[in-house]
């Protein structure tokens, strides 16, 4: 008897954050040296960390561990919002990119909290 298991690629918060990380990566590649060295590295790390923590949590075996990493991803999402705002205010990214990135980031609180809720209610341990 085979169970119907959820795969990582079916998790909305993971899909959104992974696509967003790749989108931002391509923007950061165009930064000048100073921008990359200061804000670009921080932004790339924080935005990559969202999907990475969701993936790590997904691979853990108990719900307490899983939820801990999902909460880390929430923190990385908030940090990314801060870096993106700074990029926009400092005129490093344009308004179109800023609006798209913030729109996608603003989807994540609900998605991550849904993942936490699902994990909390569906897993026994």
TrEMBL record:
Among InterPro entries, the record links this protein to: 23S_rRNA-intervening_sequence, 23S_rRNA_IVS_sf
Which Pfam family, just one, is annotated for this protein?
A: 23S_rRNA_IVP
Annotated signal sequence is: none
- Which protein, by its recorded name, is this? Four helix bundle protein
What is the species of this protein?
A: Candidatus Magasanikbacteria bacterium CG_4_10_14_0_2_um_filter_33_14
């Amino acid at each position: 008897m085979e169970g119907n298991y959820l795969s990582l690629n079916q998790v909305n918060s993971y899909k959104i954050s992974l696509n967003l990380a790749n989108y931002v990566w391509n923007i950061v590649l165009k930064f000048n040296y100073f921008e990359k060295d200061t804000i670009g590295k921080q932004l790339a790390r924080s935005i990559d960390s969202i999907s990475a923590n969701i993936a790590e949590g997904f691979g853990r075996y108990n719900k307490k561990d899983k939820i801990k990493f999902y909460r880390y991803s929430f923190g990385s999402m908030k940090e990314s919002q801060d870096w993106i705002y700074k990029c926009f205010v400092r005129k490093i990214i344009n308004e179109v990119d800023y609006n798209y990135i913030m729109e996608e980031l603003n989807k994540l609180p609900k998605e991550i909290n849904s993942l936490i809720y699902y994990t909390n209610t569906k897993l026994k341990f």
